[in-house]
Each structure stands twice: as structure tokens, then as C-alpha cells.
Amino acid sequence: MSKWYRRYRGDSLGLFLVFLLLFSFLPSGSGTHAEGSQLMTGNYYFSPAPNAGNSPDNGATGLVSSENGKLLDGLTTTYAGWMGSATANGTVYAAFDLLKDYPLDSIRLVLNSPNSYWGYKQLTVKYRAEAETDYYYIAGKHVKSGTALNDSVIIPMDNKTARFIVIAIKRSNAYQHIPLTEVQIYRGIGDEGQNPAAAFSAEQLLAEMKKDALMVDKYGQWIYETWAGKIATDAQLQQDYADEAKALSRVALDRRRYDAYGGIKRGGEYTATGFFRLEQIDQKWWFITPAGYKFILKGVDATSIWEWGYGTPYKAADGSHRKLFEELPDPSLYASAYASDLNGERVSFVIANVMRKYGWDYESKWEEITKKRLLDWGFNAFSKWTRPNHVKFPYILVLQDPMNLERIQWTYDVFDPQAKSIIDSALSPQLQQAKNDRWLIGYTYDNESGWTTDIVKEILTYDSSSAAKKAFVDFLAPRYNNDLAAVNQLLGTNADSFETLMNTQIALSRVPSLDVSDYIKLASKTYFSTIRSIIEKYDKNHLFLGSSIVPTWRTSLDWDSAAMEYVDAFSVDQYSKDAGWLSRYEAFGKPLLNLEYTFSTGERGLSPANAATSTASIAERGAAFKAFIESQSAHPLFVGSGWFGYYDQAVTGRKDGENYNTGLVNQQDQPYTDMVNIMKTVNAELETIHENGR
Prior knowledge:
The N and C termini lie far apart (66 Å). The protein has 16 helices and 27 strands. 43% of the residues are buried. With 694 residues, the protein is an alpha/beta fold. It is globular and about 85 Å long. The longest helix is centred in the last third of the chain and has 26 residues, at 513-538.
């Protein structure tokens, strides 16, 4: 009470109002709470325990009393917090037991960040009444926008009844610190629960965190929101098909403007080799089609209905059905929508909805519509991952690295003497099968996996059974004239031979940065020269397009620069609104591809792919596309890109939890019309922009 008194001393009216306000927040003798009052009853539990903030919340491994905890103390100077690290949980939880059912008006969360290293990507609040023991409902989902340090979110509850509330907060990246400053739960209108069960233990609240929340209807749509065109019946899907087929009936490739592969006839004909190649014309790089015309890749990734990433797990670890779905597709009628393979046991609402929409010959009808859509929207290629089985479009083939290579974190030991034969055996059937395919542009190999100092740091802890460790010592010794004493002094070791040094742990901090840099370049040259030699061994017709590096993640400029000698074009996956990534590679003069990019929002229960590419609404996704793709296309080294992907991911998430709004089309096979209409206009002008540099 003293802090309130100090704040209002000298103002008797203010003091009276404060006492009146406090009185309204206190439980009456009957144990009831007035409408609009803040509930401060019960306990809460964290998982994992906060490792920042204030006691008793900081380090709490058991229950925290709502009366004594920092989340309900009314102060924004105290908080619970979770520090980020390489091994930090991607999502943190707080579960509240109000001790009995209450009608709730709203829940306000305050998440104030001490500095820019703190924040969050998104949060979800779910709730259940005492009687609803099997699953939760979603109260609200919020994606953080902007960079303001102080942040609060109000979740309307509209008098819904709850005893248990679970808050889940996701990081933007592993190193981001998460704050939770205040949780304010306000009573609504209605009766409180009678004869409640005993207070839940920490173990019981941990179990509550793991319970599912109902999310989607029979068509895979978010049940907590309505929008124009939301599917309610199979007949509506079928009418969508009829309307779109009519609208697209005259769509075909304009052969007056384009060759059969989508190359532009305007601007002249160049040497036709029968396969895609690259040529620099007037200081600007272009693909040249098999027929001899200039071509900018305007691709879409993962365009197949059979893409595993569009499915969602429908069973829990114990084999029971997850309680996320109002209704799953009938496994007899829609057997094709169910799959079980290396990517897990899953159901695809995409496939089920396509089957409902197009009928018994659904795949051929869907392929026809998909090709016409892409032509109408100005796309000309399948750029990465899966593609339709029977649609003739230029495409890029991703060659996957074999899983039986000697792994080092996210990559593998490129110095392993067995690596080349393992890769050769894995890739040779694909290369021989594709070598005469005129629609194939070229290959990427592996995905988003370069070498960084983190890889070198780990290698230096290995012994001589590691080919990479042996290669490091063999690389380092001649740089110091094979002088063991000089190397020992440099590294702070006391090995009696270079063979012994291979079995000695070395601290990365003792290795000069130039040596680390050149060792990474050696590894890169070994990697890319190996892949190029294998491709050329079986297929001399197609291009090697790199390995889709993310410029600032799991790679380094050392690795990237050493690749340039061995690739025909260098590919990246750049999820950003800034085309400045191109400047990173300008000095090398190689043609550049961006094979994964997207723009997404948090509407309809979906999540944005990342903060850098999120937009405020679905309507703004097209505007973000326009600005980004035009900026890329103006660069003389740029030869194309691939939008990720054709469909949204499932609202209920794929096996790794991703549920991103990345599609040109939703999982009900409905195009995002406002967005693709902008894309149509932009795509029609990209060749001109590339020619003119603006």
C-alpha cells in the first residue's frame, strides 16, 4: 500500500480513488470478482524456467503464486525472461491455473524489451474451461511488428470461460532473448465455477502446455476467423473451379513474344545449343534457352500437390489423433491425402481439397489449371523442389547430399576420401536420366550448407580419425615451413609430431584468421570441384548452379568466394525485402540466382516466414514482391529467382512446426488474387527492367 500512498500523497481525492480502485480488485467475502476486475488468483508455471528477470520467477522450476509472482505485480520494471543461445528452446511457455472457471473479458500481455537483443516473433494464447479436459481453444495469435522495445498485446476473450490459460512465445532466432513483463487477466460477465478441482501441480501444468488446441475445420481453414471466399461446402470448391476454368480458358503461352521455353524473342536470337546456357550480353547476364533466346528465370518452388511440406502430422507421439482438427479427411474417400514415409505420417488438406474440387481425374485437371495460372501470372519455371508430374516447364533439379556422408553439424566432411564415391553413387542415376532433358536448366547440390568458423571450431576438437582434422594439419604445416616448434608455439600445443597434432585439440582462437579463411576456401574448392566433376562425368549438357546458400547463415564469404571457380551461376536463398544481397557477390562477376524468397503475413492462423519478409496483410504481399523483384532484376548479374512456394503450409504445421503463409495459393486451392494480379504486371516487365537496369 505504501507505494500507492507515496504516489498520491498530498491529494486526498486521489488517495480516496486509489483505495476505491484497490477495493474493486480485491475478492469479496464470497470469493467472487467484479466485472472488469483483474484476476490475481491461483498459480502459474514456466517451461523452461526463466533464466533472466526477477525472483521468484527467475529460475522458478515449480509453481509461482499469482499473488507473489512478478507477472501480476503491476510493475513493468520486473519481469520473467529467457536468454537466447545456440541451444535455447525456440518456444517458451507459461501456464496459469486460476483455480476455478471464470468468464473472461480480456487478457493483456506486456513484453517490454530491455534492448534490441530482446523481443519475440509471435505469441499464442490458448485456454480451456475445467470441463474441457481433452483440448484447448485459441484465444488469440499475435505476430510482433515493428522494432519498438515496449510492447503490449490485448487478447479479447468476449466472456469465454476459462480456468487454464497457456501462453506460448516464439523466438525470431535462437539468440533472441524473450521478455514477459506482465500478464493481466480481466474478469468478464457471468458466473464463476462452482466446486472446482484442487489446484494443479507443476507436473499437471506442464501437461497442460502440451495439450492441443482446436485450430482448423474440415477444409484445413483457421476456425477463429472469417474472410471473403472462405470455403463452407464442397459445392463451393467445385464452383471455384468452374469459374476459374472459364476465366483462364484462353490462357496460353504467347508464341509471338516467347519461344517454347519462355525465352523472349524481342532483342534477337543467339546461338542455340539445344540446352539452357548462360551468356553475358551488353554487360548483363542472361540464360539462353535451348532455342537461342534470352530468358530470365521467373520461378515458383514446390509446385506439386505431392510436396511433403504441405502436409501436417495428424497423430501424436503416442499414436492418438491430434486434437487440432474439427474433422479429418475421410481416409477411404481421400486415401491419397494420407502418406507415411521418411518425412513422417501426415495428411494433406491440399490433396483432399484438390480431390473434392476437381473430381476423379483431379490430378490432370489440377495440372492444367496450375499451368494456366502460372502462365497468366507471368511465371515461367519450376525453380526448386517438387513440380507437377506432367507439366512441361523449364525447371531446376536439386541434387540432395547423401545422408551416409560423414556429417559435421549441418554439413559434411568434404575431405573424407569416401565422400566422392558416395556422392557419385547417389547422383549418377539422376544425372544419367536427366542429361538429355531440354527442359532442365541445371542442377543445384545440397541446400543452405556452407562452412563457417563454427565448423572449423568443431573440426579442431576432433582427432586423426577425422579426415577434416588431418586435412587441417596437412594444410597448416607447410604454411609454417613444416616447423613443428613454430606451429606448437602458434597454437599453444606441445605435440611431438604433426601426427600427434592431428590427435590434439586446438583452440580456434589460436589459429590466425587468415589460416582459418584459407582452410575454409580449401574446403569449398574441394566440395564444389567434386560436385562439378561428378556432374560433368554423367551430364555435360546442363549447368551447375551452386548450392542455394543463405548469404548470412551457415556460410561465409570465404566459402562462397571459393565456389565461384566451379559454378556456372551462384545461387542463394534470400528471405529479405532488401536486394542488397547482390552487392556481396558483385566482385566475382558470376550470374546470380535467388532460388527461395517470399513475403508472408500472420492472418488466417498462419505465420510469417520471418520478420524480415513479413507484411501487415495479405494485400501487402504483392507490393513487397514488386519492390523486391524489380530491384533484383535491375542488377546486371541477376538471372532469376524462385518464389517459395506455390501453396501455403498447413495452419496446423508441418512436422517441424512451420505453418507459413508463403503460398501464391492457399490450401483450399484458391489463389491470392490481389497479390498474383500484381505479380502478373511485374513479371511481364522483368526482362525490360533487366535490359535497362531500372
